[in-house]
Design goal:
Blueprint (H helix, E strand, L loop, with lengths): L9 E5 L4 H17 L2 E8 L7 H31 L3 E8 L2 H11 L4 E5 L5 H7 L2 H8 L4 E4 L3 H16 L1
Parallel strand pairs: 1-2, 1-4, 2-3, 4-5
Helix pairs in contact: 3-5
Length: about 170
C-alpha cells in the first residue's frame, strides 16, 4: 500500500471559482489537514486581446472587472479556509493558465498539485484545450487530476451559460 509520507506538504490548487475547482479544493483540504500541510491557491487571469482602440478599451474594462471579481472571490475563499484552521497562501497571476500554474509550482517547491478537469469533450475540448492536460505534461511535481462527479459538471455548465447571457 502506497502512503503519502510527506511532512507538512505544500499542496497547490489552481482555482477558477467554478464548481469543478471547488471539488478539487475540497479534495485537497481532505489531504492537507491530516498531514498538517499548507494550501496554496492560484487563480490565473488571461490577458485580454484586442486589435483596435475600441476593442482595447473594452478589453481593459473587462480585465479590470475580472480582476476585481477574482480578488473578491479569492479573499472570500481564503477567509473561509482560515476560519476552518487551514494555513493558506493565495495569489492571482496573469498569463497563460497552464504556464502560470507550472511556473508557480516550480517557484514555490510545491509537493503536490491537485487540479480538476472541466469535463469537456469533442469539439469543445479541441477548441478550448485542456489546461489540466498541459499541466500534467509539463509540471515536475506529482499531480492529482480529478474528474468531478456529474452534479459538479452540470453546475459548472449552468454557471457558464448564465455568465454568457449577462
Amino acid at each position: 500500500m502506497l502512503s503519502l509520507s510527506i511532512n507538512n506538504p505544500k499542496i497547490l490548487v489552481p482555482i477558477d471559482f467554478s464548481r469543478c475547482s471547488d471539488y478539487a479544493l475540497d479534495y485537497a483540504k481532505s489531504l492537507v489537514k491530516p498531514l498538517q500541510g499548507s494550501l496554496y491557491l492560484l487563480h490565473v487571469l488571461e490577458p485580454p486581446v484586442a486589435f483596435n482602440e475600441w476593442g482595447y478599451n473594452f478589453a481593459q474594462s473587462e480585465a479590470t472587472s475580472s480582476s476585481q471579481h477574482a480578488e473578491s472571490a479569492m479573499k472570500k475563499t481564503v477567509d473561509a479556509l482560515a476560519q476552518q484552521g487551514f494555513h493558506v497562501t493565495a495569489e492571482i497571476a496573469t498569463g497563460t493558465p497552464y504556464y502560470a500554474i507550472v511556473s508557480y509550482a516550480e517557484e514555490h517547491a510545491i509537493d503536490l498539485l491537485v487540479i480538476s478537469t472541466h469535463g469537456r469533450h469533442g469539439v469543445e475540448r479541441l477548441l478550448m484545450g485542456s489546461t489540466t492536460e498541459r499541466v500534467i505534461r509539463t509540471v515536475h511535481c506529482p499531480v492529482l487530476s480529478l474528474h468531478p462527479p456529474t452534479e459538479y459538471l452540470d453546475a459548472n455548465k449552468k454557471s457558464q451559460a448564465q455568465t454568457k447571457t449577462r
